[in-house]
Structure prediction request, 1100 residues.
Amino acid sequence: MDHLLTVENLTKVYARGEVLALNDMSFSVEKGEFLVLIGLSGSGKSTLLRCVNRLIEPTAGTVTFDGVDVTRASPSELRRVRRRMAMIFQHFNLVKRSTVLTNVLSGKLGYMSPWSSAAHKFSRSDINKAMANLERVGIPEQAYKRADELSGGQQQRVGIARALMQAPDLLMADEPVSALDPATSHSVMQHLEVMNQEDGVTVMTSLHFLGLARRYGTRILALKDGQIVYGGLPSDIDEVRFREIYGEEAEEVGVR
Amino acid sequence: MKDKYYAGFMRDMPAWMQNFRHLRKPLFAFLVDFLSLIYTWTIVSFIYNTYAHGVASYTTLPWWLMLIVTVEAAALWENFGVSVGMKLLGIRIATADGKRPSMLACVVRFLVWHVSGLPLVGYILTKKGLAWHDLASSLGVVSHEDVETRRLPWYRQSWSLAVAFVLLATVIAAFLVTRVDWHALITNAGRTANIWKAFLSPDWSLLGDGFRLLLVTVFMAFMATAFGVVVAVPLSFLAARNLTQGVVGRTVYITVRTVTSVIRSIEPIIWAIIFVVWVRVGAFPGVMALLVHSIADLIKLYSERLESIDPGPVEAIRATGGTKLQVILYGIIPQIINPYLSFTLYRWDINVRMATIIGLVGGGGIGQRLMQYTRVWQWSQASMMMLLIMLVVWVMDYSSSRLRARLM
Amino acid sequence: MAKRPKKSEFGRFNASLERFAVLRSRAFAFFLDWAAWGYISYAVMYFLNQYWYTWYVDWYGTLVLPAWGWPIVVLATLELAILMHAFGHGIGMSLFGTKLVTTDADYPTRKQRWRRFLWMHASLVMLPLTLLRTGQDGALLHDRRSETRMRAWKDVKDVLPARKPRAWIRTQSGIMTLVLIGVTFWLGWEITEIDLGMLFSRAGMSARIWKDLVNPDFVHFFQPDPMLEQSIVQGLIESIFIALLATLMGGIIAFPLSFLGARNIMGFSPLGWFVYAIMRAFFNIFRSIESILWAVIFAVWVGFGPFAGVLALTLHTFAALGKLFSEQVEGIDPGPLEAIASTGGRRVDVVLFGVIPQIVPSYLAFSLYRWDINIRMATVIALVGGGGIGRVLFYYKNQVGFLSNAWNQVGAVVVAIVAVIWLLDYISGRVREKII
Prediction:
């Protein structure tokens, strides 16, 4: 039983106790899983993902990644942990004015010394690897274009290439396809699936559409008001469960 | 941002301290009313005194008497109508069910206010957020949205009338204080005809000399801007709220912000006076004066831009495990290069304008020569210098706005 | 950015004239590069003066070359500019956004560039003939002979084969810019006679001044100084009112006249364009001279005193606000205007109900911004006789050596000025936030 990630009693409180974003959550993630987080907006999905790599500081609780206590790690330990966790974002979070290649190479920053990164001196092997990753996601010809000249789907793929540069053990995706159209969404999710199945990367992603979750996830974790209300196989979510998670007026919208 | 609050470990604020929250709005409104009334009275006194007695005095009654009367007037205004302060803060006096108060209730509230509101006692020792004078008159201070209002035109509402009156009085007082004399403007035009004749025929023989001085002026502006940028860029990171956190960060932020505000408030000409005494007349003190002011202004512009950067890329670089330096280099700097360049050009433009006038206090360049000519009333030479100044400022303005448009 | 209404609404381009429009940016780019080289050669000669004891630049900074020197300099810089245009991508070309490409949208070869270089000489020698024989696509003699064209970068960006972009620092325009900046630094240091040695050697003497400055003496803060008949507070009030009046009057006059300076209101008849040009020229001219210089004139006109300051600031404010306002008018959303016109409204109605509501917030914000600037100017406009707190300031400055606490009193005035400007800056900043 080799848990890659263990979350225990994770709590996050905002605004002097008025907003409880995460309420005593506990779960664990196995190596090789494709975990999907679902839930209403504001149920805590983004907060949870960001607490795992401490982009947001948790109020209480513990996050353990491959034996390392992330919540109590020193800054340099935290950096070492972070470079083994890659993250892609809903709004892509690319540096708009830099080239696509530079954006992908910035995935390697965690491994570079301060001097070489300051001088933008990326090694030849890094550059080759970056080009290879761009080819892998299907956009090698965009390498020298400015990041904001690309379409949404292409930008997200640059984000994936950046994540690939880290050769991570865990990939976290914060609503990676919410800003994309259905066809592009599938394309992006397929890249994640390939990473999961061929590279053995554990994937933890939050999604809005249950259809996508069912299609790609091996396990689903449903959040409501900062707590886990369901954890199990995608196929086990029936009407009743669905309403429990999303509320009484919810209806499932298909993403074919 | 770090959140160190742990649920369940903190107790509520004591009741009497919480009441301070209810104190804030009425107190602030009263302050605004009091200040506006006292301002109006002094302005009107000034106008009256100037016209009736020919004396530029700001008081018609002893100052302590004026204070007391104004306090009373402000309280009366607030209790019986909608005052400027109340309008500004969006509060009203109303009964418990949102209706307009009766005359008797207003009177009661006004009278009791002297005991409870004035010494602030009644605001602190309150029950359920209602001060003593509120309880006595069964009225309360509520937000303006909760009250049904009559929509009166502006000339029938006390606060709008007051604002209009204040504006009018201010303008009249301004005319008096600045001793506007349209008569002199019109009659002197004829008397100073010779000057205008000389002024409208510039002395073209000074063209070469003038261009050389222009060169010095432009270089002055360039040096001040260039060195200003070198100093301001690193300091701007220390003056950005989103980059300075923690106790040390806060103090640095506050110090840098305060110092630059003070320096910015002192015009370059005043700085030039100081530097002229320091390093003698010439272009050098002009450069120093412009430099000091440029640094402060650039820090303000730069840091304001830093505070509104897109946090996305910053988050992304942090997530890949980058150090703070890498986050700055890869996440922040690419975003800000163009805005920073644009601000630099903007500042260079302003510095060129300033450099033309800094010669007036001995700062060198074309301003100094202009000052010399005007002192000896050589108007056609002076107008040549002004023409050249016009030229260089216009060229600078045009090219900098075109360049900035391309950058953004 | 203000949207520019299409010129074709009024003036139309002849097909034959259109090709000259393309030539315009090319000519400007060339001149810019030529000027850049000329500037560098000036610096070279200055440098030679310093270190080779030549005398090409006289004490005043003007070039004094022997008669045979001028043609050499002119030709040399011209050659360099032509070289850059044929073989490189200089500053002029990047600023005007042009790029040298072949007729079939590819990068030019060495050979093509050589041919271009050589034929450019011919073009320049026979310049009028060359211009008359401009091709339909704006091609000049040397373009046709080398089968290259100078195109706008945005047109060819997607058509050219992809190439790895070089870091800006290593491009020709980047290097040239850095060289120019470096040269300007060096020249500037010399011309403005920066002398850090003097700064430090006289630091001790200045320390005395600083000490007094930071120990302000508020003796005349409320009490008027008998020599001046004015106290610091009175001076401040005067300055504030000077600025207030100037902003009010300047703004009120600028408001209607700004419409006369807006293309989308005036651009419907030749008379309209004429008025527009006049207004814009007027705004530019009176903006270019700082208020304090206008105060020199007005002080002569109406005598020393705050009125001269008011007039000077009003004139400058009017010009500055006029320009800002008319840019706002040019940048409005034409949608509501269309709506009102379609309901049958006259031009006046369109302006009153469509234009004005859109621009009032920015007008107010700009006026507040201008008030800020005017307050700063009003504190020093007394230097040329404009009245206000500057009068007190400069009086005490001139009493240095006669009054023992002169610098302390100067410090007091400076403190007062800082406090007022800071407060008003803050208030106007907050109000502007609320408006926009």
Q: What stands out?
A: Chain A touches chain C at residues 99, 120, 141, 144 (CB under 8 Å).
